[in-house]
């Protein structure tokens, strides 16, 4: 199993919802920030449609705050919410424009995103938002680099992205060794207290530990690892 290259300094993780990063990927983020890398989060939505019985106007700010706490756990202080509608992300030019703008603002060498494939793992259908956000994040890398695509964006083009990493639960080609960061990843997911409490009566700490355990199983020679597909630019 090839290790994910770590010869870079700035990365941006682009996802649809608060909590998406914390189901495994945050263990890799914690490793990278411990190495001194600058990692930032960009969330297309505030997850405002994510809690049954809680109106979006109340839910969105709560979930943003939970996401900021989760990010802080793994050494990420810069978290940007793009304010797009939770549950109704559409793959297309508008989403690519929003994500290209984010890439131009943050100027990363590495873009990390989540599984955009139709199957989420375990035979589950991947959500429409995840499919749209993941695919658009990958496509927005080239959009961000071309001055003639989205010339109306205020940010100058950014041609510095060399690698995209897609966090997947199966079919990975590369892995990040997370044996030292599993605990902090569990703490990071457990910051989504209200969200996880609404999902299940199992205590939040137990839910978080089980989810991170599932996402950080052995891969190749690594006892605990997070799996990625790697794309070069
Ligand atoms: Zn999600």
From TrEMBL:
<dbReference type="GO" id="GO:0016811">
    <property type="term" value="F:hydrolase activity, acting on carbon-nitrogen (but not peptide) bonds, in linear amides"/>
</dbReference>
<dbReference type="GO" id="GO:0016137">
    <property type="term" value="P:glycoside metabolic process"/>
</dbReference>
<dbReference type="InterPro" id="IPR003737">
    <property type="entry name" value="GlcNAc_PI_deacetylase-related"/>
</dbReference>
<protein>
    <submittedName>
        <fullName>PIG-L family deacetylase</fullName>
    </submittedName>
</protein>
<dbReference type="InterPro" id="IPR024078">
    <property type="entry name" value="LmbE-like_dom_sf"/>
</dbReference>
<dbReference type="Pfam" id="PF02585">
    <property type="entry name" value="PIG-L"/>
</dbReference>
<keyword id="KW-0862">Zinc</keyword>
């Amino acid at each position: 199993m090839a290790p994910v290259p770590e010869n870079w300094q700035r990365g941006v993780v682009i996802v649809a919802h608060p909590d998406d990063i914390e189901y495994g990927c945050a263990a890799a983020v914690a490793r990278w920030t411990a190495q001194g890398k600058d990692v930032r989060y960009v969330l297309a939505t505030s997850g405002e449609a994510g809690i049954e019985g809680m109106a979006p106007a109340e839910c969105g700010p709560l979930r943003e705050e939970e996401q900021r706490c989760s990010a802080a756990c793994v050494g990420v202080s810069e978290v940007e919410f793009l304010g797009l509608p939770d549950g109704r992300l559409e793959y297309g030019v508008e989403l690519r424009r929003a994500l290209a703008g984010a890439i131009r603002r943050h100027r990363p060498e590495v873009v990390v995103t989540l599984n955009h494939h139709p199957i989420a793992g375990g035979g589950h259908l991947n959500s429409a938002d995840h499919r749209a956000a993941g695919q658009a994040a990958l496509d927005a890398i080239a959009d961000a680099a071309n001055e003639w695509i989205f010339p109306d964006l205020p940010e100058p083009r950014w041609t510095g992205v060399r690698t995209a990493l897609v966090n997947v639960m199966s079919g990975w080609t590369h892995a990040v060794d997370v044996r030292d960061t599993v605990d902090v990843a569990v703490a990071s997911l457990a910051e989504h207290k209200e969200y996880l409490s609404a999902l299940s009566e199992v205590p939040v700490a137990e839910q978080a530990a089980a989810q991170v355990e599932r996402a950080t199983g052995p891969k190749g020679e690594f006892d605990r690892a997070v799996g990625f597909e790697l794309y070069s630019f």
